[in-house]
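Q: Could you predict the 3D structure of Pentatricopeptide repeat-containing protein?
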Amino acid sequence: MTFAAIKSIGCREMHVASLRSSFLSNFQNKSSPYCSAPFNHQKQPQDNLHGEKNEETKMNGGPFICSPARVQKLIASQSDPLLAKEIFDLASRQPNFRHSYPTYHTLILKLGRSHHFSLMEALLSSIKCHNYPVSSSLFSRIIQIYGDSKLPEKALKTFYTILEFNVKPSTKHLNCILEILVANNSFLRNAFDLFRSAHKYGVHPNTVSYNILMRAFCLNGKLSVAYTLFNQMFKRDVVPDVESYRILMQGLCRKGQVNRAVDLLEDMLNKGFVPDTLSYTTLLNSLCRKKKLKEAYKLLCRMKVKGCNPDIVHYNTVILGYCKAGRAGDACKVLEDMPSKGCLPNLMSYQNIVGGLCSQGMYDEAKRYIEVMMSKKLYPHFSIVHMLVKGFCRIGRDDNACEVLIELLRGGNIPHADTWAEIVPRICESDDAEATGNVLKQVLKVEIRPDSKIVDVGAELAEYLTKHIKIRSRAR
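A: Sure. Here are the predicted structure tokens for Pentatricopeptide repeat-containing protein:
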């Protein structure tokens, strides 16, 4: 044990000793406003020696017990859970004193949240021994404490502890424990067993219970079990919700069974459910990955008719799908249609388009979209600019590359060092000195901040400028 730990324990013991002295004094103080029984302040006759003795006994032996409510407040206000427990124990040792249930409730949670689980469990046993009526909310809190502490076994044990207190576990208790158990793959079987046996204890799983297990089995690749649970819901008069369908759709898409997922969507629509935006996002992503772009676009168009307005995520998913499939022209059509459908393109929309156009060598169209972006104060990522500049340089159109660079600088954005490295050597190696000089003038006209770091990659530019100065000096 370290010196610091010993010192900490010593300080606590001193604090406890001081607390005990003060606390007992408060218990035995006849003028204390917190005593449960009043003290008679009238003078006793001098000849009533027996009465004086009785009063002295009361003061030293003490039926003058501090009220349970006062003890509960003292415990609740104590930040150190061990000192709170000491207060509890001091009060317990007073004659004829009985703690209130709120005191137990407060202290149990205080000890549990500070991970003093053995002390917490001892208090629970004490409650049972003293036949206190226990609220179901206490067990809800205890289950959550164990869950937050990553103790699934203790959370599961709490379900059976509830039964020992003659308290009927609720579906809420069941669902909380299931969530804790499925978070750990090794407890998935325990969760399933509890789910199947819950009805024996009068607890009936609801839609949330089924969804918790369905999601867990889908994430663990056990899609058949999830489907079985889904079908059981109808047999047991448990109504699935939008999330139930979405969980299965996501599971099918992870398995690459996108056609079955689309069929499930149709079944969902036929039964009167309105899919949420995440359900559509899942399907659109999966269709695009499978290069089923016609189906993806058709689904995008149907969304609004079916009661779910497509948002920017849905449009960007389809745009990116077209671009990755080498169909940037179709992606442009989707983007141009967006405003009329009530959704404006964002930075990601334009970046996907520019990247897709560059990948297909359509640099002029890409440059046009860069200009549109800049006009809307949407500044592209340096990688997108670099792709376009590099593309122009590759086909010998350095002037267009410089135009892109100049436009970027005017907007107050700094090209990446790789972009400078791509364009500066080409400018400086140009045979057309006049044209090169004009391009440089245009570039250097723009205010270049120090963090543009042109000097890091511009050795050729420095050499060019040096030669240019020497020529001008000779001419003079």
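Q: Anything worth pointing out?
A: The chain is about 70% helix and 0% strand.
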